[in-house]
Design goal:
Order of helices and strands: HHHH
Strand content: under 5%
Radius of gyration: 16 Å
Number of domains: 1
Structural class: mainly alpha
Helix content: 55-70%
Number of helices: 4
Largest sheet: none
Length: 67
């Protein structure tokens, strides 16, 4: 499964120019933004982010404080 599949972007469907640009930005920015974010955090913050990222359970700020 590729990134487009994970994000529900069907690369074979016809789309408007605006929709194509939105899809391209979504697909192109996902990993870039993550790398930039992870480069700005401490080791503890990175650990917290990675723990929260593998969960699909909604978490409040209080929940994350105890993670």
């Amino acid at each position: 499964m590729g990134l487009a599949d994970e994000l529900g972007v069907d690369l074979s469907e016809d789309r408007t120019f605006d929709r194509a640009v939105d899809d391209a930005l979504l697909l192109g920015s996902r990993d870039i933004v993550l790398e930039l974010l992870l480069a700005t955090v401490t080791a503890d913050e990175r650990s917290l982010l990675l723990h929260a990222a593998v969960s699909n359970v909604p978490m409040s700020a209080d929940d994350l404080a105890f993670a």
